[in-house]
DNA sequence: GTCCAGGTCTTCC
DNA sequence: GGAAGACATGGA
């Protein structure tokens, strides 16, 4: 048999919301299942009563890489309990989508994707990332009669591209940023592995050295790839949420909002951020 | 046609 | 320090 599958018995996990909530950009819904790429493997995930089922196109004995990516073993109830219980806005956001989770992505792919995200809608980011993978990624094993799927190209591969090749992937003015960043990663000028053992502030200051990476994109990578639970990306949606819900009268400065995000939401502020983001985008 | 999108960087006051 | 403008592209 050249096909493997497993089931992660997990409760309170909303696969669709999690995979389509703008953390990762390579998941596609196909006939009720979700197809994507994790750790160089093509994967198909399906929400079942007993949990999440996973299929791969290769023979695999170990699923820990996917278990880690999906954060199956996180104490999710503890995360929800850590939220400020008297915050009715946040509680409402949680109720509206209580199985929304955070993924744990590979840093370079997350970083590269979010460099491409600035002032783009999520659907367009997905299109750009898909083009980048098709043109510069490596072909992966897929099921028979399944369309070809490619890996997200390494920093080395992107660093070897010409800027106009990248622009052909519709990324516009983001092309030089992705290219320069890829070169800094490939040359070792910035070592993404080293960020795992840094503090949140140290890791952020390292990321913002990269062209096209400011505070918001750095926080996305710190939250979605490195798992810093207090990283709190403030984008246009979160800005709107914080202003409307928490500061309806005053017009707080950006600095004030950052301080609020770090003090009000507790040790898992990043999760709270994802709930508010999803809530603002999906409510009528 | 106009507005805006999971921003960042530069310029100018 | 904070407020504008530029930057490509395409969906709403």
Description:
The mean pLDDT is 96. A 5-stranded antiparallel sheet has the order 1-5-4-3-2. α4 (88-96) crosses α14, α10 (200-207) packs across α11 and α12 packs across α14 (269-282). It is of the alpha+beta class. Helix content is 45%, strand content 10%. The protein has helices at 15-19, 64-70, 76-81, 88-96, 107-115, 122-136, 155-159, 163-167, 175-186, 200-207, 215-224, 236-246, 254-264, 269-282; strands at 4-8, 28-30, 33-38, 41-48, 51-56. It is built from 14 helices and 5 strands. It starts with a strand and ends with a helix. The structure holds a DNA duplex (13 and 12 nucleotides).
Strand content: 5-15%
Biggest β-sheet strands, sense, barrel: 5 strands, antiparallel
The tally of strands reads 5
Whole-number mean pLDDT: 96
Percentage of helical residues? Answer: 40-55%
Shape label: globular
Order of helices and strands: EHEEEEHHHHHHHHHHHHH
Radius of gyration: 19 Å
Unreliable spans are none
Termini separation: 47 Å
Number of helices: 14
Structural class, judged by helices and strands? Answer: alpha+beta
Strand order of the largest sheet: 1-5-4-3-2
